[in-house]
Amino acid sequence: MGVTVIFVEGKAVCFDIQKNSVAAEDDVVEVGDIIDELNGNVITTSSQGTLNNLMRKTAGFPISIYLIKAKWKNNLFPPIVPLLVAAKLDISSIRQKQMAEQDAKVLIKNEMAKSSITYIGNVSTGSLGDVKQIAGGINQILSGKGNQIDSLVTFECLDLGVKVTDKAQAKILLKHSYMEIASCGCAVEIPYYFAYIASDGLCSQSDNFVCYVFHCNIQSEIDTILNSIGQGFKRTHYVV
């Protein structure tokens, strides 16, 4: 998994994250976080000798991990700070990274304010929700098929899902959890359009999928949205 853990007062504190490891992907696990549970096993001091075995058993498979995050709002989670000090972690570097992430979020928010996203419409893809249906869904909407919407919207990627709101009426048009989203992407031959496919329930239990198509005038914003959906999908499916 790529995590070095140090036990402090019975808590497994993440001391180091190996670059290019599973744990390093998307900063899901960060230095200072506490591993509270791994694949149903509560992690305490008694787990110290078996933690490596637990991690090795999960090699190549999705894992379920419960974390107590070191970061809280715009600061560090107060109860964790004494543990970080005891673990001799550099608190200032953790805070600097947190501030850099906040600055990046502000930058993304400012870029989003400049962008113009239009919800073009949606079309059924039947029982198929894989990424191969994206290009076809976009083409169908652009050819006038499906439900034509054509509304200027704000597109938000939240912790548990996406929310699309009509800018003029401040009305929520779409709201899907990442567990309901089967795929997302764009068509190379049709720039500035992107889409995601969602079901009316959990993807694994559904045979009714709909492709939701959007237009955005800034390609980098499309990339950010698609990456955020992908990260949200992995986070809610594999990491709690």
List its salient traits.
240 residues; alpha+beta; Pdz3 Domain; PH-domain like; 2 domains; seven-stranded antiparallel beta sheet; 5 helices; 28% helix; elongated
Task: Please characterize this protein's 3D structure.
- With 240 residues, the chain is α+β, with helices and mostly antiparallel strands.
- The protein has two domains: 3-96, PDZ domain (Pdz3 Domain); 114-236, Pleckstrin-homology domain (PH domain)/Phosphotyrosine-binding domain (PTB) (PH-domain like), CATH 2.30.29.
- Helices cover 28% and strands 35% of the residues.
- The protein has five helices and 14 strands.
- It has helices spanning 51-57, 81-86, 91-114, 133-142, 219-238, and strands at residues 3-8, 11-17, 34-38, 41-42, 65-68, 71-72, 75-76, 117-126, 147-157, 161-166, 171-177, 181-186, 193-199, 209-216.
- The strands form three sheets. It has a seven-stranded antiparallel β-sheet with strand order 11-10-9-8-14-13-12.
- A hairpin with a 3-residue loop joins strand 9 and strand 10.
- The longest helix has 24 residues, at 91-114.
- The two termini are 16 Å apart.
- Mean pLDDT is 84; it is low at 236-240.
- It comes from Laodelphax striatellus.
- Residues 161-235 form the PID domain.
- Pfam families: PID (PF00640).
- This is PID domain-containing protein.
